[in-house]
């Protein structure tokens, strides 16, 4: 699946927000986007139907949504799961900006925005849930992952 643009992600957000992921027509999506834009100060409110249909076609070509015919119109629903997309996007951000490292990301955000006590507690809980990592002793041989690996190292299994 190709990358999802910001405008395409806005359409996906509208589709994901539907109870039970009910399909929507292009007109309904355009109306929802226009309503969101009207509520957000400084946001462009130009969500023309033609633009929405173009973006829907791009999402169809990327396999992110599906379309079903309903009389003279099409109804669209997401195929791409929101959680999968969010995971993909967040890892992409981490890789692009912080070379895949979490600590600089947390340091950046904590420097830019004051962490609330709830944020600090949530971060502590996440760290507490991580399995302990043990750095190997310099010069020590790594332990085999399982008996088959151990046998291979001894030359017993080919």
UniProtKB/TrEMBL annotation:
<feature type="compositionally biased region" description="Low complexity">
    <location>
        <begin position="140"/>
        <end position="149"/>
    </location>
</feature>
<dbReference type="GO" id="GO:0003677">
    <property type="term" value="F:DNA binding"/>
</dbReference>
<comment type="similarity">
    <text>Belongs to the BlaI transcriptional regulatory family.</text>
</comment>
<feature type="region of interest" description="Disordered">
    <location>
        <begin position="128"/>
        <end position="158"/>
    </location>
</feature>
<dbReference type="InterPro" id="IPR036388">
    <property type="entry name" value="WH-like_DNA-bd_sf"/>
</dbReference>
<keyword id="KW-0805">Transcription regulation</keyword>
<protein>
    <submittedName>
        <fullName>BlaI/MecI/CopY family transcriptional regulator</fullName>
    </submittedName>
</protein>
<dbReference type="InterPro" id="IPR005650">
    <property type="entry name" value="BlaI_family"/>
</dbReference>
<dbReference type="GO" id="GO:0045892">
    <property type="term" value="P:negative regulation of DNA-templated transcription"/>
</dbReference>
<keyword id="KW-0238">DNA-binding</keyword>
<dbReference type="InterPro" id="IPR036390">
    <property type="entry name" value="WH_DNA-bd_sf"/>
</dbReference>
<dbReference type="Pfam" id="PF03965">
    <property type="entry name" value="Penicillinase_R"/>
</dbReference>
<keyword id="KW-0804">Transcription</keyword>
């Amino acid at each position: 699946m190709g990358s999802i643009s910001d405008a395409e992600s806005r359409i996906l957000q509208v589709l994901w927000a539907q109870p039970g992921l009910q399909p929507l027509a292009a007109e309904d999506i355009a109306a929802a986007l226009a309503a969101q834009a009207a509520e957000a100060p400084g946001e462009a409110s130009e969500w023309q139907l033609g633009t929405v249909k173009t973006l829907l076609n791009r999402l169809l070509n990327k396999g992110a949504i599906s379309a079903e015919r309903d009389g003279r119109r099409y109804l669209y629903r997401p195929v791409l799961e929101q959680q999968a997309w969010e995971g993909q996007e967040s890892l992409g951000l981490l890789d692009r900006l912080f070379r895949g490292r979490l600590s600089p990301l947390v340091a950046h955000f904590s420097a830019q925005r004051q962490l609330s006590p709830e944020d600090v507690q949530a971060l502590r809980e996440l760290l507490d849930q991580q399995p302990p990592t043990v750095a190997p002793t310099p010069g020590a041989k790594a332990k085999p992952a399982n008996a088959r690996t151990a046998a291979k190292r001894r030359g017993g299994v080919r």
